[in-house]
Amino acid sequence: MGLNESYDLNEEDLSKKYKQMQKYLHPDKYANKNEIEQEISAQYSSLVNEAYKTLLEPLSRGIYMLKLRGKHIEENTEMDPQFLMKIMEKNEEVESADTEEEIMNLNKEITAVIKDLEKELSRAFFNGNLDSVTKLLSHMKYYTSIHDQIQNSIRNKGIIR
What we know:
Layout: H1 11-25, H2 35-56, H3 58-68, H4 81-96, H5 100-127, H6 130-156
Helix pairs in contact: 1-2, 2-3, 3-6, 4-6, 5-6
């Protein structure tokens, strides 16, 4: 996408670059062109969309950057039992949250945890500490899952933020 390879990413710059690329690649621009040009446009436009989505989300961006460095998150790695217990408790809290106040407090808490993990990931990537990056991304996967549950709960209960 023509951006510096860094975990820290300016979303505004990413959005500008995305729009700039789509301005030239979007299939609508090639509607009057031959079939080959239309197909190429559709393929490249799709790749730009995928890259944008990957880079926009902190978790997928981190996983992608880790993959560029020849590593990936092991699904069956040993996780700290205390961490897993904390995650189970948070999941139970989300499932049992009934009031708007409870849901919004959990949303605020989990969002803050994810922001802290992003800062730690930035430092770990900057320092080249891939073991730490892998562990942090594993933790972020769990917290992102909880965050997604909270967002579903907010939508399902019609809570306006």
